[in-house]
């Protein structure tokens, strides 16, 4: 089988036009250099160097092979460079998970930091709810997740992201003035779009605790997973909702976004999560790069 050493020997002889200078360039003696080229010619099945002349002359096959040989050596060096950069975490790929709400706040900052600090790392994005991200990180499907607060799991590492806060999204016909703070009791006994207890457990449990703590009992009309869907239903007049303030820009024209001072005691906590024993060499460098954004 043809080897890179054989190819390198041939290119050196062709470029130097002399076996002695080629051997010196490659830091070897002439006999092994000649054997490498002879072995290469046997492997190819064609004579590359015309040995009947006093000066080094390439055959027609040798001239064609020289062009391809240079490309081969260049490609091999490029592949080696990529491998070295990947091993050092300078270059590679990163599978990054995020929830829709975190995607509105932390994700843009993280992506900007990646672009500026580790431009040779290519992120592949995966939108998933928190529970699926935890499973994906543990299973090696994604390298890094951006999740809502969750109980710490063995084998995973966490780093806090900036907190968000809740606001009330209500149908405009309710008469709640945007920009004017109201009591949470504004949703007591009224139609309310709630989070799914299964697929959106973090928000479901959080809101349930808030309502109990404040003595508020809304009338749940729908249970949904995505905040986009929730705001769509609010805009359709199916009830109010509590959503992260960062997602208020998704509200429709028939929705009022109202702050409630009572909700300030319940920050929305998010975290980065990754496998403590991750084998992806770019992960450590990515975590360092996005630290200011996180």
UniProtKB/TrEMBL annotation:
Molecular function, one GO term: DNA binding
Gene3D superfamilies assigned: Periplasmic binding protein-like II, Winged helix-like DNA-binding domain superfamily/Winged helix DNA-binding domain
Protein's name according to its UniProt entry: LysR family transcriptional regulator
InterPro entries reported in the protein's UniProt record: LysR_HTH_N (IPR000847), LysR_subst-bd (IPR005119), WH-like_DNA-bd_sf (IPR036388), WH_DNA-bd_sf (IPR036390)
Keyword Transcription: yes
Residues annotated as domain HTH lysR-type: 2-59
Highest taxon in the source lineage: Bacteria
Family: Belongs to the LysR transcriptional regulatory family.
A Gene Ontology term for the protein's cellular component: protein-DNA complex
Keywords for this protein: DNA-binding, Transcription, Transcription regulation
Segments traversing the membrane: none
């Amino acid at each position: 089988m043809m080897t890179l050493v054989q190819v390198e020997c041939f290119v050196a002889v062709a470029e130097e036009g002399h076996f002695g200078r080629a051997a010196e360039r490659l830091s070897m003696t002439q006999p092994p250099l000649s054997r490498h080229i002879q072995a290469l010619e046997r492997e190819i099945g064609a004579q590359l160097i015309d040995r009947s002349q006093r000066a080094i002359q390439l055959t027609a096959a040798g001239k064609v092979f020289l062009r391809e040989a240079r490309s081969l050596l260049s490609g091999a060096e490029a592949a080696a460079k990529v491998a070295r950069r990947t091993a050092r975490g300078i270059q590679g790929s990163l599978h990054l998970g995020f929830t829709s709400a975190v995607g509105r706040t932390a994700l843009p900052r993280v992506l900007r930091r990646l672009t500026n600090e580790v431009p040779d790392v290519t992120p592949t994005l995966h939108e998933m709810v928190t529970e699926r991200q935890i499973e994906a990180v543990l299973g090696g499907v994604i390298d890094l997740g951006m999740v809502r607060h969750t109980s710490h799991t063995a084998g995973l590492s966490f780093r806090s992201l900036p907190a968000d806060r809740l606001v009330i999204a209500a149908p405009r016909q309710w008469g709640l003035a945007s920009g004017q703070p109201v009591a949470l009791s504004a949703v007591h006994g009224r139609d309310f779009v709630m989070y799914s207890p299964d697929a959106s457990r973090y928000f479901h449990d959080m809101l349930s605790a808030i309502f109990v703590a404040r003595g508020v009992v809304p009338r749940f009309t729908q249970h949904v997973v995505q905040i986009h869907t929730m705001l769509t239903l609010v805009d359709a007049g199916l009830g109010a909702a509590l959503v992260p303030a960062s997602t208020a820009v998704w509200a429709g024209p028939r929705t009022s976004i109202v702050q409630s001072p009572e909700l300030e005691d319940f920050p929305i906590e998010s975290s980065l999560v990754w496998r403590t024993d991750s084998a992806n060499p770019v992960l450590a460098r990515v975590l360092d790069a996005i630290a200011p954004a996180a």
